Description:
The chain is mostly helical. It folds into three domains: 1-65, no CATH class; 68-259, no CATH class; 343-418. It is built from 20 helices and no strands. The protein has helices at residues 3-15, 25-32, 39-48, 80-90, 102-114, 131-146, 149-152, 156-172, 177-200, 204-220, 224-240, 244-255, 261-277, 281-297, 311-324, 328-341, 347-363, 367-384, 387-400, 409-417. Helix 4 (80-90) runs antiparallel to helix 10. The longest helix is centred in the middle third of the chain and has 24 residues, at 177-200. It is globular, with a radius of gyration of 24 Å. The model has no long low-confidence stretch (mean pLDDT 89).
Amino acid sequence: MTMEKFVAGIHAAAARRNLLSGTDAARVRKWQRGVTPDADSQIYIAEALGWPAHIVRADDWPNWLPLTANGVVPLGPHSSVPALREALRTAMERRTFLTISGSALTVLAAQWADSDAGPLTRARDGKPIGDDFVALLEDTSRHLAALPTEQRQHTSALLDAHLSTVTDLLEHGRYTPAVGLRLHALAASLAQTVAWHRFDLGHHTAASQYWVAGLHSAHAAADHDMGAGVLGDLAYQAAWRRDHATAAGILTRALTRARHPAARSLLQLRLARTLAAQGERRPALRAIAAAEHHLRDARADRPAWCAWLSEADVAVDTGQALLDLGDTSRAHQLITEGEQLLPAARDKTRGVFLAYRASSYLTAKEPGAAAAAASESLLLARRIGAPRCVNLVHDLLPRFQPYRQEQGVPELLELAAA
């Protein structure tokens, strides 16, 4: 936007309120050099840039201003803190109207795949940060992330505060390169955990921004497996929203740099799911075989973000892929076996698997068994506070309508309506 168009936009915003603005190019240059616009001018600035007035926080100039045109901070040598700030701002729900396009995420994945982290930069005039304090943040963050799902619904504010603290330390603290690497790794882990919380609540834009921030931090820490894992989460979200082309593109990039067998197994499993959803049978079966092979090779020293991956996950996701490919009988068998193999501690995953099992029963025209699985999933999801599982069951309800007289179906519909 030229200076003339920007000033004209400000005048137009004032005129819509039957007011006049004295803004000219000289005043804009003062704003650019650090002078704070008054509250009314900030509203006019937002509208001149094409943003709604309600995003303005006059006491937080210029932090409320969007950093990018498409919502994604470009990957670069100094991009981790801006990406974290963008995620934290988005989470304040002033900009939930933003969506991140699949093409923007695919470009970001390509940038990550083709670039290496540069030397870390840090503030030289901030307060020194010691190893003990970083260890405290690492330990408490790890403990919060490891809580059972039923307790995690109470930890969002604590995780948000931890991530905000780490972001402040990265931006303003004074630390050694070794501490800097630990802080970036911690930021990546926290951003990934917070993203899953937002995703489970259906806050997709905020989840995307946290995953993007996690990718930047993992890149700064030169942790390729972590970066691949975060891209895998963005792909999972894209597939969840039925944007399988974006999911496949992101996963293909992620696999170029993932090294740990457990990481590669999870990425291949997600690739199999999205390929099967597009009807690509042979590539999907190859990805399933690769996922099984890598899981067999996975050692005990897995990255924390994929330490949970087990034969249960491979069985259920393989079953879901086969269901999309039309192999109903084998799919149903694998989904049932996988749900039974799942450890008791993974209640949220159990709720998702039960919903998958209900779907496979419906495909097999067994509404009674489907209703039983869906009811169990719904009750479990409500108890532990897992709205994504609740939504999975509610999405199945139209498929139960032809079976309203079958055993268990009226009770399920009544339970879902309660």
